[in-house]
Design goal:
CATH superfamily of the largest domain: Acetylglutamate kinase-like
Largest sheet: 8 strands, mixed
Strand order of the largest sheet: 3-4-2-1-5-9-10-8
CATH architecture of the largest domain: 3-Layer(aba) Sandwich
Shape: globular
Oligomer: single chain
Number of domains: 2
């Protein structure tokens, strides 16, 4: 059961037993033009999932397709583009039909499934996030295959993830998954668009997303919402949770089994994959609470922090160990004297973006960059009153409104650590 805020996100599992997230897009489920279901594709996918199950693994399916299935059921010729309410209504019609198809296919193997509908607002409170973790864990312990989709029927623009690539990355974090497979219509990421450049080379292993230089000019399908850029977002979310992400062609789901078998047989050894693009987990992982703040929540406002403060906060977390940058577990708070300004209106305990201003070396102009996220102890209006002051002045200014000595408590900060950020801030480990 997940009930500890200080969980370390290390990839720990018994030899050969993995939690595996598989994300399948609408284009793999429905025809783009007439929305007829691609039953052959779905059957091969289900067979691959059941083979993973027979090998002792714990598969989770993140499936798009509710809107496409609804369009077919209602005999609509195309997806509406202007009415969000109409799209949500179509999703409501299609979601039940989609689950019925999956239930029929999995029933051939006497395999129980569960529908899990998530939205960003479902993880707003810490207890909600922990409940989601516990529910997934219980389903997997019972041998049930969860089938996850965004709750398109009731989500608004502020509470939705917007695409199931991002949702799959979130699911990987919630389940503490070992692998995330993003099934798409290309074999891998390429150095350039292979449809236009015959010399484009596939990239099979990515150690650091910040140093990735590839073509992401593949759009989403006509009935889907994602493209290659959203898959990179998902890979970043998952890699920070200790999960390996694989982008591969969805036409051959059996390849998932082959990749997992190779990983299981060579655990702890260096392998050289030839199928798909593999994004390796971060060397330094966020704690569970940090990951939830950084990726599970959507910032509703912004607080700009002094550049020197940012450098101090980050450098204090860096030590040199084995020639690599590592984070100290102890975090440090953000105080009123560290604050330059706020943006937008927010309330206590809401997630806010932490930014600072740097000088862009190429343009010579000031540039605002996000360095992390946190949970505020005060409203934006209160911060405007106490910014630049010492903590001892808070009670003098706010009186009974004084809640804490800090703007953001140390346990509620999650920095966006990356090699690029360290380079921008001119920080290195000593």
């Amino acid at each position: 059961m997940v009930n500890d805020d200080n969980i370390n996100r290390s990839t720990q599992y018994k030899k050969g037993t993995y939690t595996i997230i598989i994300k399948v897009g609408t284009s793999s489920i429905c025809d783009e033009h007439n929305y007829f279901p691609k039953l052959a594709n779905l059957s091969m996918l289900v067979e691959a999932i059941m083979e993973l199950k027979s090998l002792g693994h714990r598969p989770v399916l993140v499936s798009s397709g509710a809107v496409g299935t609804g369009l077919r059921r209602l005999n609509f010729q195309q997806k509406p583009t202007k009415s969000r309410a109409k799209i949500q209504a179509i999703a409501a019609v299609g979601q039940g039909r989609l689950m019925s198809k999956y239930d029929t296919l999995f029933s051939n193997f006497n395999q129980p499934i569960a529908q899990v509908l998530l939205s960003r607002s479902d993880l707003t409170e810490r207890y909600q996030y922990i409940n989601a973790c516990n529910t997934f864990n219980e389903l997997l312990n019972m041998g049930v295959i969860p089938i996850v989709n965004e709750n398109d029927t009731i989500c608004n623009e502020h509470s939705r993830y917007g695409d199931n690539d991002t949702l799959s990355g979130i699911t990987a974090g919630i389940t503490n998954a070992d692998f995330l497979f993003l099934l798409t219509d290309v074999d891998a990421l390429y150095t350039d668009n292979p449809r236009n450049n015959p010399d484009a080379k596939p990239v099979h292993v990515v150690n650091d997303l910040d140093e990735l230089h590839v073509s992401i000019s593949t759009p989403g399908s006509a009935i889907g919402t994602g493209g290659m850029s959203t898959k990179l977002v998902a890979a970043n979310i998952a890699s920070n949770a200790g999960c390996t992400t694989v982008i591969m062609n969805g036409k051959y789901p059996k390849n998932i089994v082959d990749i997992i078998k190779e990983a299981s047989d060579n655990e702890g050894k260096e392998i050289h994959p030839e199928i798909g693009t593999h994004f390796l987990p971060k060397d330094t992982l966020l704690r569970d609470r940090e990951w939830w703040i950084r990726f599970g929540l959507a910032p509703v406002g912004e607080v700009e922090i002094k550049l020197d403060t940012v450098k101090t906060l980050i450098s204090e977390r860096l030590i040199t160990k084995g020639g690599e940058n590592k984070l100290l577990q102890k975090l440090h708070s953000v105080y009123p004297i560290d604050i330059i300004d706020t943006k937008d209106y927010f309330f206590p305990n809401q997630c806010i973006s932490l930014t600072t201003t740097i000088k862009n070396k190429e343009t010579g102009k000031d540039e605002v960059i996000e360095v992390g996220r946190g949970l505020s102890n005060y409203t934006s209006s209160e911060i405007q009153l106490i910014k630049g002051h010492e903590s001892c002045d808070i009670i003098k200014i706010l009186g009974d409104g004084a809640k804490a000595r800090s703007i953001i408590s140390k346990e509620n900060i999650a920095f966006a650590f990356s090699k690029r950020l360290l380079q921008v801030l001119n920080l290195t480990a000593n």
